[in-house]
Design a protein that fits this description.
Blueprint lengths: L13 E7 L2 H10 L7 E7 L17 E8 L10 H15 L6 E4 L3 E4 L2 E13 L2 E12 L16 H5 L5 H22 L5 H6 L7 E3 L5 E7 L5 E5 L4 E4 L11
Parallel strand pairs: 1-2
Antiparallel strand pairs: 2-3, 3-7, 4-5, 5-6, 6-7, 8-9, 9-10, 10-11
Helix pairs in contact: 2-4
């Protein structure tokens, strides 16, 4: 039996905003004032939303699910990037319990619908004296967009476009919190190694050609127990790419 909303660790404190600079920034301010683990900030619109590697996350008011979740796991800072892989598994879980869509994960944490990006995940750590204070886990999911700007139209999509019908964002948030609460509990109990097989079952990257940060190309063949991508290079050697490093499809 799944826990009720009151029994979940995640979402016991929820701050809903119409507009904010960034849900990550707002949650960071709350975290620094002692907000409890599981506190959530959601918004209808962000004026300075951000994605991985400093990219801007663009949204139209009311069309996306924009949420940041405060986590305080007892792990070393080096393991924080694994939480983005855990969250990607949870996002796919949540999407599979809703409309008839097939969601897959592009390493490490982009969630794809019909081969196009629908969700981005950003874990940001705060540390002190080499110890982890907290993690801000940001999730941006395209929900009810009917179209995208020309410059990203060929690589972005939404749940509405993939399913053919508008979606209830509040119901989707509840499904996401249920899924993430369960997967986060698994992570705390067994680490990412216990979730590795679940990530692989949802993977779009394995078997695809990729380019490593150093420029070497090869085929993604597996995921290490710590979340690193294993790529068999064209010369036969296996290249290990840590989950904080970029990887690209050749030609992109």
């Amino acid at each position: 039996m799944k826990p009720t909303a009151a029994e979940r660790l995640l979402g016991r404190v929820v701050r809903r905003l119409q507009e904010v600079d960034s849900t990550q920034a707002e949650l960071g301010r709350l975290a620094d004032r002692g907000a409890p683990e599981g506190t959530i900030v959601s918004a209808e619109h962000q004026t300075r939303g951000r994605g991985r590697r400093g990219r801007q996350w663009l949204d139209a008011p009311g069309e996306s699910l924009l949420v940041s979740i405060l986590l305080r796991p007892a792990v070393e800072p080096a393991r924080v990037p694994q939480l983005s892989l855990v969250a990607a598994v949870a996002v796919v879980d949540a999407l599979q319990t809703g409309p008839a869509v097939r969601a897959l994960i592009r390493w490490p944490n982009d969630v794809l619908l019909d081969g196009r990006k629908a969700c981005g995940i950003l874990p940001e750590a705060s540390t002190a004296d080499g110890r982890l204070r907290y993690v801000l886990l940001g999730i941006g999911l395209n929900v009810n967009q009917a179209d995208f700007p020309p410059e990203i139209r060929d690589r972005a999509t939404s749940l509405r476009l993939a399913s053919g019908v508008p979606q209830d964002r509040d119901a989707l948030l509840e499904r996401l919190l249920d899924a993430l609460d369960a997967r986060y509990a698994e992570f705390r109990a067994r680490g990412f190694a216990g979730l590795r097989s679940e990530w692989l079952r949802r993977a779009a990257t394995i078997g695809q050609r990729v380019r490593a940060p150093g420029g070497d190309e090869g085929v993604a063949v597996d995921l290490d127990e710590d979340g690193a991508l294993l790529v068999r290079g064209d010369g036969g050697a296996v290249i290990r790419i840590a989950s904080g490093e970029p990887v690209h499809a050749p030609g992109h």
